[in-house]
Amino acid sequence: MGMEVRIFPTKGEVGAAAAAAGAEKIREALVDRGEARIVMASAASQFEVVEALTREPDIAWERVTLFHLDEYIGIPMDHPASFSRFLRERFVARLPGKLKAFYAIEGENEARVECVRVGGVLAGEAPAVAFIGIGENGHIAFNDPPADFETEAPYLVVELDGVCRQQQVGEGWFPDLAAVPTHAISMSVQQILKADRIICVVPDDRKADAVQKTVEGGVNPDVPATILQDHGDCMLFLDEPAASLLQR
C-alpha cells in the first residue's frame, strides 16, 4: 500500500480522520487477536488526534495496551514536558474505560536499563497502530538526523539535535534551550516500522519543508521520516499549511 497522503483544511478534521483510521485498526486487532497494542506520540501536533481517539466508539479499551514513543532522560514523570504525563492527562484519563496496561518510559531511571525494561515488553508482539508525527528536522520519535535505520533494539538512547531542542522551546514545553534535556529514550526506527499501521499526523506550516522531503525525496537517514515510504500501511494526515510545498 505504501504511504497514503490525506489533506484536510483544519487540524480538527485531521485529528478526527486520523483517529478514525487508527481506531479501525485497533478494532481489527481486538477481533483477530483478542487484544491490541498501540504506540502513541506525545507532542503538540498530536493534540487533536489524541482527543478524537478518546471519543471513538466500540473499542474495548480494557484489552488495549499503550506504549509511548519516547521520553526525555532525567525529567520526572510529573514535569510539565513529560511525555508520560502528556499521555496520562490527555489520553488515559479521558478514556471511557481503563486500559489493560500503559508501559510508561521512566526518564529518571538509568536510561539503558529502562530501554531494556520497556523494550522487553514491547518485543512480544507487533503493535496494531503507531500514532506518530514528524519533527521540523524530519525526525520520527526522537530519531534525529542522521537516524539509525539499522538497529533492531526496540528502544535506544539518543542525543537530541539543536533543531529538535529548539522546537520544544518554540512549542512552549520549556522556557529556554538550556532547560531542554540533551538526551532521550526513543523507540527505534525499525521498531516503529513493525506496527501494522502507522498513522502519521503532521499539522502546521513549520513542518511543510519536512513533509515535502518526506513525501517527495528519497529514503535517507538525513530525513528520517522518509523511511515511512517503505512501510506497507502508512497514512500521512496533513492540514493545508503542512501540505503547502507538496506537488499536487
Can you describe what's shown?
By secondary structure, the protein is α/β, with parallel strands linked by helices. It is 30% helix and 19% strand. The protein is built from seven helices and ten strands. The strands form two sheets. A seven-stranded parallel beta sheet has the order 1-10-9-6-2-3-5, with helices on both faces. The chain has a three-stranded antiparallel beta sheet with strand order 4-8-7. Strand 2 (36-40), helix 2 (47-54) and strand 3 (64-68) form a beta-alpha-beta unit. Helix 1 (11-33) crosses helix 2 (47-54).
Number of domains: 1
Specify the structural class: alpha/beta
At the third CATH level, what is the topology name? Rossmann fold
Give the second-level CATH assignment, the architecture. 3-Layer(aba) Sandwich
Strand fraction band? 15-25%
Helix coverage percent: 25-40%
Which sequence of strands runs across the widest sheet? 1-10-9-6-2-3-5
Q: What ranges have pLDDT less than 50 throughout 5 or more consecutive residues?
A: none
What's the total helix number? 7
Spatial extent as radius of gyration? 17 Å
* Average of per-residue pLDDT values: 95
Envelope shape: globular
> How many strands appear in the DSSP assignment?
10
